[in-house]
Amino acid sequence: MSLYSEPDTAVSPGDALLGLRGISPPAWALTALLLGLVLTGLLAYRDMLVQREHLRGQWEALADRVPRQLQSPFERTAAQLRAMQTVFLANDRIDQAQFARYNDNLMRSNRLGSHLSTGFARRMPGPRYVYELVTPQRNNESLLQFDIARQRPNMQALLAARDADTPVLSAPFRVRQLSQGSHPLGVTVRLPVYSSGPYPRTVPERRARDIGALAIALRLQPLLQETLHGTMLETFRIRLANAAEPAGGYFYDSGGRFAAGESALHRQMAYGGQRWNIELQPRMATGTSDNLPLILTAGGLISLLFSMLLWSLASTRRRAVVLGTEMSERFQQSEERFRVLNDLLPALVLVADTRSGVIHYANQAARQRLGDVVAAERPLPALFSDPQLRAQADAFCAGGDYWGNIEALLSSLSGTTFWANAAIARVNVVDRESLLMVASDISEQRKLNDLLSYQATHDALTDLYNRREFERFVSQALVRPGGRRPWALLYIDLDQFKLINDISGHMAGDQLLAQLAFAMRQQLREGDVLARLGGDEFGLVAYDLDQEEALQVADRMRRCIEGLMFVWDGRTYTVSASIGVVMVERGGISLKHLLAWADTACYQAKESGRNRVHVYREDDATSRRQSEMQWANKIRWAMEENRLLLEYQQIQPLQDGAGGEPHFELLLRLRDEDGRIISPGFFLPAAERYGLMPTIDRWVIQQALANFSRLHASGTLPGLCAINLSGASIEDDDLADFILDLIRRHQVPPARLCFEITETVAVRSLLKVVQFIERLRAAGCSIALDDFGAGMSSFGYLKNLPADIIKIDGSFIQDLDHAPMSRTIVTAITQIGHQLGKKVVAEWVSNASILQTLRDLGVDMGQGFELHKPQPVLFQQQAVDGTGS
């Protein structure tokens, strides 16, 4: 069918020309030409805008990465300096060999091809900072004895860094130890060094303990070439300048070609007190498009031929009879040319009749994507899959000028669908009104957008929803309209999953998680939401059910997990899960509280023996769990803010009288945010439950040994200082090495140290405790068996435990005056202890009567409020009063 023929009426050239009377042929031709050029220009301009916007967006995103990439090598260098700083905190007297060895060890994990030297400049009076350690020494001999104070800007930056304990970056400088022919520019990253001891927290401490500065010198150009490799340098010509000296010009220029007509992008990198201006000049222009020549050429030719065709029709009035046959042939040739050229367009082009809406022309791209819609006499609105858009297209066909640039799902004759950006316009061609539709296939772009959206909401390993999307579902469920059935939140935590990672590696653990996710997905009811919250934790939202149904869902999930047989590398594993269930039957609940309740219920399931389901209830166990969680957080904050305190309580001889060097036990306290002193009975249970005791014990040991001469108020060394150790610390294989290393470092006499271990811990881990005790006793330390008698253990353990001191549990001492059984037990412990050659100490001595009874029974030493009330250690008093160093 002809593009210009009526579908139901044959019109001769003469009849057509009758409609053109009064209108000159040039006017028709010019109108058609302008219309074709306008449509071509619209297509070309739209394509150019899309291409330019896309390219500029890529440039902006790439340019945003440049400052971060420039900071990266300096941050790695600062991390290496921070590690070296820690070495000096442990031993501030390092020689050249040790310095080189530490530097080589650190360089293995942070290889920098641009590394020039690592140096240490010691602080001298003045102050001056003179390099005394440099590695490698080859080619860096000139740095030795160089004084940083000769460079005033670097000196000022170093002093500021000392006060803030932050790394500083120098301005680019000419490297002295390199020849002019190599890369002569370099930068230096510096970090202050403090004398050995605890980490300085305040500015006065840092100034007082300042002993020098560490520095790593880097060649600038190789460093930048390593950092800005690949896409950065292929896309931009990059130039860097010092922001503090804009008139100094660029100290780095990547060179090469660049698009002179494109505006440069500017960014700024700030690190270590330096700011660099970054100029990024694109290497290609944005005003070009791969499709632009084709669109302009094809559109221009089509418009020209179309106008020539109309000119020919309008000017054949007088020659119609003679040249009728010739005009018909030319018309057909012109139309064929139009078809051929239009078929070259990559866009879908369709022309339809305005009265019936039936498509009577489709170019090659449209036929390939939609099928032969012309032969099928398909109406233009029928292309739209969406009923609402189809109705709007019907309304437009009835009367409308332009309907366009909409994203719609188009349907082909075969039933396949694809996304397109479509525009429809009403056009007049040879006195005939038609509908022109131009569409571009955007299916790939939509697929990419869908993929990005999926990746943003799903876990890559399990293909389940991620935590952010899960919390969105929960938040929506919390605010949904009332009147609906209750729903449940399930918190699923795998039991002992870490063992699989430890035994077979993380790859096995990942594979197990993927299989578990697939198996759990099969157990879901329609509409329920399953997500991986992180690690080995999963969440499930189950809608419209009561508590009994929720327990059925949870138990089905538990049995599904328990029944999975996982095989990896010849081993077969089974796992179980503890599941916490929270029923949501009312509004007004926050997401934070709901997740906390679910975690609490899951914890209760684990506490009850694992591989079980627990429903959240506001009972005593739950309240205690929440209280302990709060105390655990308070302990962590107190440690970070240095609010843990030490007190000492003296242990007095009962037989020989007081005198000589003081014996005492160190006691732990916590100062809360309001300044109140909290006794250990409130927070130590939470510390034990949440695994914080090893950290606390190490803190106490480190503080006690580092300030050994500043514990007692008299300022004298203790005759014996007792330090308590928890069961979790005893199970740490590295604790003995930690203690012995601190004893050597702080030169504490081991004979003045006593470590107390409770009887229950000793009996529970007898072999490990004996090994630990023997190592400390071999070094000269004493061991006390604390709370003896409370665990109702056999006296036979005393023969196997190489302890020096037995501390009788206070429960037997406090009722010693009126409980004959307590008196008998104390007598027996004292006699057996003396026969084994051990000292016997009584705790909780609260009055003079008990004190006298203990003396009569032959107890060696006593401890309690009757003898001495605990008081803060001296070094913490000095720190509070401002009199300490």
From TrEMBL:
<dbReference type="InterPro" id="IPR006189">
    <property type="entry name" value="CHASE_dom"/>
</dbReference>
<dbReference type="Pfam" id="PF00563">
    <property type="entry name" value="EAL"/>
</dbReference>
<dbReference type="Pfam" id="PF00990">
    <property type="entry name" value="GGDEF"/>
</dbReference>
<feature type="transmembrane region" description="Helical">
    <location>
        <begin position="292"/>
        <end position="314"/>
    </location>
</feature>
<protein>
    <submittedName>
        <fullName>Diguanylate cyclase</fullName>
    </submittedName>
</protein>
<keyword id="KW-1133">Transmembrane helix</keyword>
<dbReference type="GO" id="GO:0007165">
    <property type="term" value="P:signal transduction"/>
</dbReference>
<feature type="domain" description="CHASE">
    <location>
        <begin position="127"/>
        <end position="228"/>
    </location>
</feature>
<dbReference type="GO" id="GO:0016020">
    <property type="term" value="C:membrane"/>
</dbReference>
<dbReference type="InterPro" id="IPR001633">
    <property type="entry name" value="EAL_dom"/>
</dbReference>
<dbReference type="InterPro" id="IPR035965">
    <property type="entry name" value="PAS-like_dom_sf"/>
</dbReference>
<keyword id="KW-0472">Membrane</keyword>
<dbReference type="InterPro" id="IPR043128">
    <property type="entry name" value="Rev_trsase/Diguanyl_cyclase"/>
</dbReference>
<feature type="domain" description="GGDEF">
    <location>
        <begin position="485"/>
        <end position="618"/>
    </location>
</feature>
<dbReference type="InterPro" id="IPR000160">
    <property type="entry name" value="GGDEF_dom"/>
</dbReference>
<feature type="domain" description="EAL">
    <location>
        <begin position="628"/>
        <end position="884"/>
    </location>
</feature>
<dbReference type="Pfam" id="PF03924">
    <property type="entry name" value="CHASE"/>
</dbReference>
<keyword id="KW-0812">Transmembrane</keyword>
<dbReference type="InterPro" id="IPR042240">
    <property type="entry name" value="CHASE_sf"/>
</dbReference>
<dbReference type="InterPro" id="IPR035919">
    <property type="entry name" value="EAL_sf"/>
</dbReference>
<dbReference type="InterPro" id="IPR052155">
    <property type="entry name" value="Biofilm_reg_signaling"/>
</dbReference>
<dbReference type="GO" id="GO:0003824">
    <property type="term" value="F:catalytic activity"/>
</dbReference>
<feature type="transmembrane region" description="Helical">
    <location>
        <begin position="27"/>
        <end position="45"/>
    </location>
</feature>
<dbReference type="InterPro" id="IPR029787">
    <property type="entry name" value="Nucleotide_cyclase"/>
</dbReference>
